[in-house]
Fold these 2 entries.
Entry 1:
Amino acid sequence: MNFKILLLLTVMALFGLVALLYFRTLEKHPVHPTPQNQPLNVIVYVCDDGDQEICVIHADGTGFQKLTSNITQDYRPVMNRRGQIAFICNRDSGGGSDESPQADLCVVKMDGSGLTRLSNHFPLNYSEYPAIDDEGEIFYICFNKTLGIEICAINFDGTGSKILTDNTWTEFALSVDSHSGLAFICVPAGSASFFDTEICRMNIDGTAFRQVTHNDLLEWGTAINEPGIILSNCDKDLLHHAGLCLIYPPNDRFVVLSSTTIGNKYSLNNQNQIAFQCFDGHDSEICIMQADGSGLKYLTVNESGDTMPSINDAGVVAYLCDKMLCVIHADGTGWKRLFGPGILSPVTDMSLEIR
């Protein structure tokens, strides 16, 4: 046999063997794409069909779906990059006590499947938004007379219910990132005022709790991203707004970025872009800038009163525009108002989120 042909056959056989071993390895250890840095371009929001329901729609206006349909109120939805949604769901009959709470945690997937009411081992504070990480763990503010106001967690499938804090602090306004952990507002033990707020953080397993701000500002609301930056609104007092405040890792450097924000809604993505409500002298608009304070830009300039912006890792911003949903890209292009047959308008006093 010709030597070149023999060599070619040998190489092909070796290649086939390597390929076979590779695919057998895949069977034993399948490669699952990670949700990070894979934006869904899906908006989850509270919609109104006579009461409050949870709806989703793609940023291009397609794929509208009402995920819940009942006679009770569903609100405060949050979604991770896997399309898992957690929200607060009222019970059919009110209770109003710690022993018989008015609301529970519910979960559903963005395709409408898996709608479940979770059995919470710890009663939730239903005035607070839950938070969900990309592994499907849900974090929420829990409360009863024994525990006080603490942070609890439960998995998307209803397992693993636990309390993460058991201390004399008061915690609220949660945000989470699977890599960077939890950020939240905390009121120090023994504080003379509930408005003596600081920002705290800890790991998602409840370890390494620490206070990261030590100032006289009134911080409220948090957003944490994968690089570990924490964003918050901060006021000098109840009447004087200081601006957007950021805490940078690893040394908790504190910076006030802007005094142009209004309202209580802003969003921080993993590309360190901030979308927030701003004021042009007449109306509420949507602005964007980098987390270092550069690149400040008005994305909208109109008279509709634009509010509640949320930005995903693709730089797509979803927001409320004159009681409708609108989207726009971070570079100012691609503006679109989402409406059409069957699409329900959002409830304007509730937040929305784009993933």
Entry 2:
Amino acid sequence: AAVLGSAGAAQAQAQTHNWSGFYVGVNGGWGQGKSDARLNGTNQAGNGVTQLAFDVPGNFLAPGAGSISSDPQGFIGGVQGGYNWQIGRTAVVGVEGDIQYSDIQGTGLRSGAAFGNTVATTTHQDLNWFGTLRARAGVLLDDKLLVYATGGLAFGDTRNSAQITQTGGPGIIAGVFADGSGVSCIVGQACMAGARSGTSLGYTIGAGLEWAVTSNVRFKAEWLHLNLGTENVGMRNLPPVPGAIPAAINARFDNQYEVFRAGLNYKF
């Protein structure tokens, strides 16, 4: 009986999944942006109100018009790798890094009237790639299922742009304000435009679960919130008004994304 008992205990131990060790894997999923562009003039008109292109109280172009959402979204896919340490029978901690291709992009549009003409403000946002370096800590609900929280550094290639275009109307919009700044618009052309791109740094937090399909193959599903900070895009008048200081508008973009992805890991 003692021999049989020892054999049964050894078999039970052999069936237990060990989560300690290195792993690599692939993933794919979807990303959704929570990003708004807020427009603010950088010059002062003669009436003391911050100008946003043609600043007339109650005009669509006034700073109080609010924000424009580009609603970026798209496919993501990439690779990850990391190391886990199993502590006792229920706790697992580790580190993980990943790099992702991203097709997350979107365009926002707001139009209105200015001096009998129609004007449109367009914003565009792209997240071309991103990566994270995170800590993970979780609990084993049984020896096959790990539920974890994660957080750490995030970085990514962001591109934000904005422009104001006169889309229709009987004439050319042009003027010089009391501070010496001027602006002009011609139908069908962008009269204020700007763009900025580069690598942005921020943070990420999230949660997920991982299922041991076999002793080496693990399925994972994960949610991450990415915050890559804010980015300011300066728009300048095109073409400039002769003899006037070019009017300027700042578009402030919030680079925040929700990422949902699933994948497979191979544990060595």
